[in-house]
Records
---
Amino acid sequence: MKVEVVPHDSTWSVKFEEEAKRIALALGDNIVAIHHIGSTSIPNIYAKPIIDLLVQVKDLAKLDQQCSAMIALGYEAMGEFGLPGRRFFRRDNKAGTRTHHVHIFEFDVAEVQRHLAFRDYMIAHPDDALKYSDLKRELAKQFPQDIQGYVNGKDGFVKEMERKALIWKRSQQTIENS
C-alpha cells in the first residue's frame, strides 16, 4: 500500500459530516455519538487522506446484527482488526483508493477516551501537532510503499502523546469540576 500524507484539506470536516449522517441513518438508535478522529480531524497537519470516524454504540451485539447496513454503504467489515471490543470497517472509492475508516466501540470503553483525548490534545497543542505532522511526512518519505514501517515509525511518538493527552484530559476535567 502506498503511503501518502498530504497537507490539511478543509473539506475533510465536511466529508466527515456527510459520512456521519449516512452511518447514523444506517445504524439508527443504536448510535450514541459519532466523532471525527485521526489526523484529518486535527487542523493544519499533514495526514493520509482517509477520514476516520469513531462511532459509539449502545450495544455491540446489536451492531454485529447490523453489519449488512455498513456493507450496503460500501464498507468492508474487518471484525475487531487487532483491537478487542472494536468493530472496524473500511471503504475505498471506485478507483480503489481508501477513503474512510470506521472504528465502532460500545460507548463506555477506554479506547474511546484514548482516541478523543489524543485528538483534543493535538488540537489544543499545535506545537506537538506540528511535530507529529513533520514525523508523518518524514516517515512517508522513508517508507513510501511500506504502511507497516510507517505505522511502526510513529508508534513511540503516538504512545507518548497519548500518555500526555490522557494526563492533560484528566487535568481539564478536574478544572471543569472545580
Note: The longest strand covers residues 98-106.
---
Amino acid sequence: MVRSNGNYDLDKDPFGQIHTLEAVTATMIMVSVIVFTVQATSLTPLTSSTANAHIEVQMQTMGQDMLNVLDRGSYGYISPLKQDIVSWNGQDFSWNGAAYCSVNAMEYDRLNSSTAKMLRDIAVPRGIAHNVLFMCIDSSGLPRGKAYIYNGDPSDNAVSVSRKVLLSDHYISEPVAFLANTGIPDTSLSSDFYNIVDVRLTFWRM
C-alpha cells in the first residue's frame, strides 16, 4: 500500500491506527508480565532473611558464651554451672516477669542459681525467651531429659546450644536424694565417675 503525499486526516489514517494498536498491545503485554512476576514472588514479612539469620547467629553465640562462662570455675573450685546441677531439687522453673518460680502450683520456691541470674540479667532485658534442659544417660543406658527452666514451646526461629558437664561422686553429697529428685543416676558404681549432664539452652525471640 503506497501512502499519498497529499493532505490527509490523522483520524482516518490506517497507519496511525495500526501503530496505536501495536502500542496498546505491547503495553498490555508488559503489564501482564509485571503482574505475573509480582504474584509469583513471595514477599511476606515472615520470610527468612539475612537480618533474621544474623539475629539467630547472635543468639547462638550469646548462649554458647553464657554456658562457657558458667562452666568456668577457679582452680580447685566447682564451676557455677556444675554447682547449679548438683544443688538442683528436680523442680522446673518458669519466668513470671519478676523471678523464676516453681511451675508446681503447690510450691512457691524461687530459683536463685547462677544460671538463673545470668539469664535474668542478659536474656530477659533483651526480650529473649529461653528454656534450659538437663540431659543425661539413665540407668537403662538411654538418654533422658528434664526441664530446669521452661518458658513454653520454642518458635521456628529458635536456636539451641549445649555444654557437657562431668559429675563425679564427690560432688553428690546425698546420692539417693539426688537421684530421687533429679532422675540423674550414678552410671558407674565402681568408680568415682557419676554421670555426664548435657545442659541444653534454647533461645528464641518473642
Note: The mean pLDDT is 85.
---
Amino acid sequence: MRFSIQTASLRQLVLLSFFLALIPVGVLLWQSNKSLSGVSSFAITSAERSVSYVRQSESMQSVVIDIERAVRQYGVVRTEAIRRVALTHIENQQQLLQQVCQDLPQLNLCAEQEAALEALRQRLSEEFINTPESLMQQIRQQQQRITQQIWDLLERQLSEQQQFVTHTQQQLAWQTFALVLLTLLLVLWSSNRITAPVKKLDRMIRAIGQPKHQFPDEKLRGPRELTELGEQLRWLSSRLQQLEALRLILLRHASHELKTPLSSIREGCALLTEQLVGPLTPQQLEVVTLLNGSADRLSVLTEQLLDYNRLLQQAQPEWAWQTPQQLLQACFNDHALSLQQRQQQVKLDCQLNTLYTDATLFRRILDNLINNAQAYGAESSPVWVKLYRQDDMILLEVANNGAPIPVALREKLFEPFQRGTTPRFDSVQGSGLGLSIVADCARLLGGHADIVDVVYADVCIRVHLPFLGEKPL
C-alpha cells in the first residue's frame, strides 16, 4: 500500500513524526553504548597488562635477589647443590626476561641483561675464586633500569588511555550535538506539517467571521481530517454567504414593503383622527386611536431593527477627533420633546474637551441610553449624563431614578431581544434591542458596557471605552 503524507490521517502523521524523531535518538543511544563499550574494553585490557607487567617486574627483582644470595652462598660454601640453585634462578630470570622483552619490545636493556646473565652462568660453570661483585652489580642496575622503563611505559599507556577517553568523549559530544540538531529539525518539520494546515484553518475561520470576508481560494493540504475540515469550512462559508445575501435582500424588501403601507396607514389614521373625512363616533375614534398607536409602535420597531442590521454590517469604526459637548448636545436636542413630555431634565457633567472615537457609534450609544432613561426613568426626575476619564479608560454614565434592575438580569439585558420586567412609561413598547446595540457599539470601539450601582441614582449604565490619547495641538 502506497503511503502518502498528503493523504495520511492525523494519527498516522503524528506516529510518523514520533518515529522520525526517535531514529536519531536510537542512533545516539547505539553510538553511546558502542563508545562506552570501547572505552571499557580498552580500560580493562590496559589494566590487565599493567598488572601483568608490574607482577613480572616484581618477580624479576625477587629473582635477582635470589641469584645474588645463591651466588654469595656458593662463593662461601662451594657445593654442587647451591650451584644448581643459582643456575636455576638464572634460568628463571632468563625466562622472565624473555617474556617481558617479548611483551614489551620497547625495552632496550634486554640484550645487555641477557649477556650479563649468560656471563654469570659461565662464571658459575668455572671454578671462580672470588664472587663476581661487578657482574652482580651490573645485573642489579640493569634490573632497576628495566623496572624503571616498565613504569615509564605504564605511565605512557595511562596517558594514551586518557587521551583515548578524551577523544571518545569529544567524538560522542559532536555526535550528540549533530543527532540532537537532526532530531530538532525533524520535530520542526513534523510540527510544521501539522501546524501549517491548522494555521490555514484559523485564517479560514477568521475569514468566515468577517462581515465581508474573502475566503481563501487555496485548497488546504495536510492530514486527511484537517483537509476534510477545510472543505467543510469552505462549504460553510459558501452557505453563510448565501444566507447573508438572503438576509440583506429580506431586510431591504421588508423595509421597503413595510414603510410604504405603514406610511399609508399612519396618514389614513391621521385623517380619521382629525375627522377630515367625516365625523366619528366615540367608539370609532377609540379604535382609530388604537390603530394609530399600533402603527407608531410598528414604525419604531422597524426602525430599530434596521438600525441594528446596519450596526451588524459595520466592520471597523471610523476614528476621528470629536467634540463631546457637541455630540452630547445634539443628542439631547433630538430627545428634547420626549424628555419634556415626562418633565425630565438632563444634568450633564462632561470633563473631556476632545474625544477620539467613531461619531456614529458613539451617537448610537447615546441615543439608546437616553431613550432608555427617558422611557424607564421616573417622571419629573433628572437624567444624569457623565463623561470623564479614569486611568486609561473613558467612562460614559447615563443614570436615572426608577425601579432598580435586579443583579441576575443585568448581563441578560445586553443580549438581543431581551427586556426587563419594568414597564416603559412612554407609549412605545420596546423591542429589546436598545442595550444590545449599546453593547455591540461599545465592543466595536474596543470597550464594554455594564450596569453598575451608584449613590446618586437608582439605575446607571456605564460604558467603558479605551483612552486613545489626547488631540495634538
Note: The chain has three domains: 10-191, 224-309, 317-466.
---
Amino acid sequence: MTALKPLLITSGEPAGVGPEICATIAAGSLANTLNRPLVFLGDQRLLEERAQLTGASPGWKVIQDASQANSAGNYLIDIALQYPSRVGKPDTKNARYVLDLLDLACDECLTGVAAGIVTAPIQKSVISPLVPHFQGHTEYLAERCGQPGEVVMMLAGGGLKVALATTHVPLSDVPKVLNQVDLERTLRILLDALRKYWGRSAPHVLVTGLNPHAGESGTMGDEEIRIITPVLARLQAEGHLVSGPYPADTLFQPRFLKNADAVLAMYHDQGLPVLKYASFGEGVNISLGLPILRTSVDHGTALDLAGTGKANTGSLVSAIECAHQMDKHSRS
C-alpha cells in the first residue's frame, strides 16, 4: 500500500507518439521508484499494438477507475477509440476520444481520487473542428475546471522555470491582450505556485519587457511604462520579490538567473526558445492556477516518429517526476 494518490497519464493523440511512450514507461520501474500508482488512460488495444511496434512490454493492471489503484505500480483505464487509428495519420473522428481522456482525468482529480494529471501531446488540428477556437490543454482544462483566464503556463527544465504572461495568441495580438489586471493575476499565481509546489518562502521572479531593450524608456514602445512597471511597483510595495522589466535578449544569463526562482516572459516565443534550447526532450509544461495539478511534455505529437521506436520518453518521465514532487511539496 502507498499513501500517495495516483497520477493519471493521458495517452493523447492516438496517431502520435503518446501511446507508445506511455506503454514504454509502463514497461519500466518508474511507478515503483516513485512508490506511487501510475494510471494510464487510453485504448488498451491501441497502446499494446504500439508497444509491440517499439518492443515494449507494458506491465499494467486494467482497472475501471482510479480509486482501484491503491498500491505502487502501473495501471490502465481502458477507454475505447471511436475510430481506428493509423500511425502518423490523425483523424478528426477521434477528437472526442482525446477529450474523453482529459475529461475523465480532470474529473478524477477534482473529486480528489487522483493527485494530478500528466498529459501526452495532442493534435490541436484534430480537436478544433469539434471545439471551435481550441487552443490546447492549458485553456481546455481551465474551462473544464471553471476557471477560464485564470491559468498560467510555465515550462521547467535545464535549471530554468519560465512562465508566460500570454500563451497561445498570435504575436500581433500580444500588445492588445496585455493589461495590468491580467499581468498582476499571473504574477500572483506564479508566486503562490512557487511557494506551494517548490517550497520557496520568498520567491523571486524576474520579469521581461515586451519590446526590444524593454522599450528603451518609451522610444521602442510604452507597454513597459503603462502596464508592466506599475504592476511590479504594486507587488513590490506588498513585499514581493518581483524585478524588471528587463530586456529579454540579455536577461537569460547565469549572473541574473542564479538568484531567481522563475522568469515571467510576455509571450510564448520570447521565453520558451531559451528554455527549450537548454532542456528540449527533458522539459516539463506545467499549468499553474488550476484547482488540480497538471504537467505535460515539452513536445508535440511527433507524427513522423510514431511507431518507429525512436520516440524519446524523457520529457514524459520528467513530467511524471515533476508532478510527483509537486504533489509531495504541496502536502508537506
Note: The chain has 13 helices and twelve strands.
